[in-house]
Amino acid sequence: MQINRIGKQTFVFHNEPNIIGAAAVVGKKEGQGPMKKWFDVILKDDSYGEKTWEKSESKILKKAILLALENAGKTKEQIDAILSGDLINQLMSSSFMARDLQIPFLGLYGACSTMTESLILGAVLIDGGYAQNIIAAASSHYCTAERQFRMPLEHGNQRPPSAQWTVTGAGSMILSNQIRSQQMIAGEPAKNLVVTHATVGKIVDAGIKDVNQMGAAMAPATVDTIMQHLKDTGREPSYYDVILSGDLGMVGKKIVKDLLLKENIDVSTVYDDCGAMMYEKEQDAHSGGSGCGCSASIFSGHIFKEMRQGKIRKALLISTGALLSTISSQQGESIPGIAHAVAVEGK
What would be the CATH architecture of the domain defined by 1-347? Predict the structure, then answer.
């Protein structure tokens, strides 16, 4: 019997599921940042023509999925299942999107780690022969997250420098058991992207209770997953062209680098964070971006396109999640963190 796991927490995908299409849709603020050239759609108005923020987010997610299908050359009838999640109660954005598309649906909640969680489970279904084509997606919206987790926008509360700005956006990737038909990019054959490994994280709780310190709360889980992935695979950080965490922001990014250095692991030449990359300093996002849509849109936009062009050959993508709820905060609980990693290579 073939073993599909190495070490303690890492899956090996012997059939190497292919990422054959992707798309990223973001809001106006995100479209003014340094990542703007990589997004497929930038909204002129974050309401996206809807009467509520929640309906806007669901529409953004649906748009990202339809664009990813188009990019992959697939129809929704060819998709076996959607794996998606968001931050709203009962996964409202994802559930109503799936209602509209009428594709079998598995709703996921990993907070801001949802994008890699969906990629991991999608790859498992493809690699195990349970599906041929899977949609992996995630979304968030600044206004829906503020209303649910912090203060309504009308409150106008002040934010400390450590606070992060929830990204309005969505990302979607199409996983398949078939190689994408050959395409040319700038006169060169586009690379085929495959998921080779995935490390499932465990919850690490640093005891932080301040919702304005999300990066610090999630950083220890990121360090734990990176160390476990390197241990399980026997790799050095230099194996990857980029190790990219999902939305720790500037504060959490520094903590990760410092904690890894204490373990004699230097990632300084390959490591960055989606939350730190999303906004310019002048955009007043304080520590940077957060939300399910942060890593989802940067993975599905910047990373996917760079890997297709061969500019990034090997990437370790790590989405990070703060597993708090409105109830847990009110009950005085700390903020547990989790991080899942997916290794993607261009071939």
Answer: 3-Layer(aba) Sandwich (3.40)
